[in-house]
Amino acid sequence: MNAPVRPRSTLLAMLVLWVAFYASITLFTPPLLDDADSVHAEVAREMLIRHDYVTLYANGIRYLEKAPLMYWSMAVSMRIVQLFGGHSPRALAAAARFPIALDVLGLVWFAEMLARRLLRSARAGLYTVLILLSSSGLFLFTRITLPDAGVCLWLTLALYGFWRTEEIGSAPKHSPGDHHLRLYCGIFAVACALNVLTKGLIGVVFPIAIVLIYLLLTRGLNNTLHRLRELHPLATFEAFLLIVAPWHILAGLANPTQGHPAAIQFVQGHWLVPNPTTGNVHGWFWFYFMNEHVLRYLNLRIPRDYDTSPLWLFWGLCFVWIMPWSAFVFKAIAHAAPLRWEKWRDHFRRNDLPLRRRGLLLLVIWAAVVLLFFSFSTRQEYYILPALPALAILIAGWLMPEHDATHSRANLRITAVLLALGTLAAAGSCYLLLHTHTVAPNTDLAVLLNQNPSDYALSMGHFMDLTGPAIALFRFPLSIAALSLFLGPLIALIMRKRARPHAANLALAAGAFGLLVSIFLGLRIFSPVLTSAQLAESIAPQVHQQDLIAIHGEYESGSTLGFYLQRDNIHIVDGRSSNLWYGSFFPDAPNIFETRQSLAAKWNEPKRIFLWQDTQNEDQDVFCPSGPVYILVKSGGKEIISNQPNP
């Protein structure tokens, strides 16, 4: 069953928009951010230094909680850049981001292919491209080196492979496509395996759960079992294991249990997970599978260095991350699963839905499985990303040129609501622009912010610090956002009234991409608060190999120092926690953890010390040694001090 051919215009739009928003200036600016962004890049950099591609390390300490594929790809990208003479931290930072950008391109490529095949429309493929590439959620969370874009890619490829088996199963017997069934089962297995190597067990849990629920709902139990036997389960499982097993086995062998760690206990109706002690620590198998999968899902993971988004926020962000397209999502879902339509219910009860209807149902199940799974576990704002491709294709199917008056009127009303909301948002932006006073040149944004440490475990928590005076620094991106939120829906409404739905959808896309420009510019302005790269680059000319570099607090709070100074031996003062915590209990962990007392004892020694600290953190006093203190650089609410002046 042949799908409509992808038009060259769609391919050109895909590549141009991808380069513009994901693979050009956004690779280089803003710098890597503190916390996960620079920690993950540093893990890849240390992989190259150590030539160890099995055990991950961060700052010289075992980093056992993540799957390796993203780090392998970043290490390969860095190595290629190095071969062409790019050894500077900025070049390596761009190299670290490039595989994430490739994940986005692959995601959009396969989502477009799936949309064309499933909806039998080339225009649906174009709309899928526009919705995904203009998604503020996908854009924001690919500014950080997170594996979730890869999860979206492999999940989409897995379900593309499965859908091709459905097309073959619906074709006449002995059709020319029959012999391809094994190939598409293999694609499903490879995609699941790569997803496991990207983010652990959800890489196989999601596609298997989606497929099983889909088969049960469209075929019933007996026919589902029969269909599963047709899908070459043994060969598929063998292909999956062939890719997945080697790294998992090698990681377990390279990181065995040390000493005699305590076991989990059930006391007075509660599970107690004991902390490790030096030399007594569970090995990789326990930490990776039990702690990072089972206990994380149950909110019992150690250390407790994370927060969870409230359920209302998690579901609400589903709409925020794909605005303005999410305004159509309820109509799209109702169109995909029309429960009030008697004919659809009859087909559903008889398990004989037409192929296209089954495809739409598959998309609904896909989105529901992801969102419901995380509704019952710990969750971050970006955990909804694997549901976005399904939602994008559903919305694209609804947005195809209106085929009846009811459809046209519904989209006209939705666009009018978008215009009303956009007008309110634009009016609010204009009010802020008119009532915020211009700040002095070179004002440090950090001094205008309020501190909300309780929010910082969330990936976007620092944006809760914004105040009225701080908004004055965001005048330009706020102006672009106001214009995008107003003009996009306005032009779309005019086009819909003129019965030009395709032009209306393109106008909404233009507004959505304008909003991405404002987000990018706003992130650049906010970045000095989120990164210590500018501090690292300021002191880099004075730093020598024998000098001691220290961070006061958690490693993640100033982790860009390690990457931009290319050091894997940063000392940590009163911050043995978070990513370095578990690995620090292995006997071979370097002795990098300091107390205020131990650092104070070293302060007057001949060795030069560079100390990073957060001057805005109300929960932690700054370090004040008894000896001489030289402030070398201050920016973004952070400073680097030294026990010796610059030469």
In words, what does this structure look like?
Strand 3 and strand 4 (270-272) form a beta hairpin. The chain has a 6-stranded mixed β-sheet. Strands 1-2 form a two-stranded antiparallel sheet. With 647 residues, the chain is mostly helical. Helices cover 57% and strands 6% of the residues. It has 23 helices and 10 strands.
Helix-and-strand structural type: mainly alpha
**Residue-averaged pLDDT, rounded?**
90
**Biggest β-sheet: strands ordered side by side in the sheet:** 7-6-5-8-10-9
- The tally of beta strands, per DSSP, is 10
Kindly, what is the distance between the CA atoms of the first and last residues, rounded to a whole number of angstroms? 73 Å
Q: What's the total helix number?
A: 23
Largest sheet: 6 strands, mixed
Helix % is: 55-70%
Low-confidence stretches: none
Strand proportion, as a percent range, falls in 5-15%
| Rg (CA only) | 26 Å
Q: Indicate the overall shape.
A: globular
How do the helices and strands line up, and which of them pair or pack?
Elements: H1 8-22, H2 36-50, E1 57-58, E2 61-62, H3 69-83, H4 89-119, H5 122-133, H6 136-140, H7 148-170, H8 181-199, H9 202-230, H10 233-254, E3 265-267, E4 270-272, H11 284-297, H12 311-320, H13 329-336, H14 342-349, H15 355-375, H16 388-399, H17 405-435, H18 468-471, H19 475-497, H20 501-530, H21 533-539, E5 548-552, H22 560-564, E6 571-573, E7 593-594, H23 596-603, E8 609-614, E9 630-635, E10 638-642
Parallel strand pairs: 5-6, 5-8, 6-7
Antiparallel strand pairs: 1-2, 3-4, 8-10, 9-10
